[in-house]
Amino acid sequence: VRSNNGSEWDTTGRSIVDTLTVNNGSQVNVSESKLTSDTIDLTNGSSLNIGEDGYVDTDHLTINSYSTVALTESTGWGADYNLYANTITVTNGGVLDVNVDQFDT
Fold first, then answer.
1. What are phi and psi for residue 6, nearest 5 degrees?
2. What InterPro entries does the database record attribute to this sequence (predicted)?
3. Which among 10, 24, 29, 33 would be 20 to 30 A from 4, CA to CA?
């Protein structure tokens, strides 16, 4: 599945794909659903947002070129995971935001 040029995909139910590529400001929103993919690649300011009751699992997650993966506050931190990946690579200004307070001292 390829999402390009500012497009948006709101997952429903259970989505299973081999490769998910999100490019050029596109976004994927996973709430009250589950997304499973062998590989997820985000580039060029794209985003993957994991909301309440949203679950994402992948073998390889790459967050590149100012893209963001964000777990919202509503995901909570229960017994289940909201994001599972065997390998996570964050490069070139990418952001993995697990919604933990950050403090500068």
1. 80, 10
2. Pectin_lyase_fold/virulence
3. 33
d(CA 52, CA 41): 22
CA 34 vs CA 15, 52, 65: distances in Å:
6, 11, 25
Q: What is the 3-state secondary structure (H, E, C) of the chain?
A: CEECCCCEEECCEEEEEEEEEECCCCEEEECCEEEEEEEEEECCCCEEEECCCEEEEEEEEEECCCCEEEECHHHCCCCCCCEEEEEEEECCCCEEECCCCCCCC
What is the structure's pLDDT at 101? 59
In a domain, 105, yes or no: no
When divided into structural domains, the chain yields a total of 1
Can you give the residue range of the structural domain that contains 88? 2-97
Say how far apart CA 31 and CA 9 lie, in whole Å: 11
Task: Dig out the tokens for 105 from the structure.
Answer: 């001292």
Residues contacting residue 79 through CB under 8 Å, at least 6 positions apart: none
- Residue 80: pLDDT band with limits 50, 70, 90: low
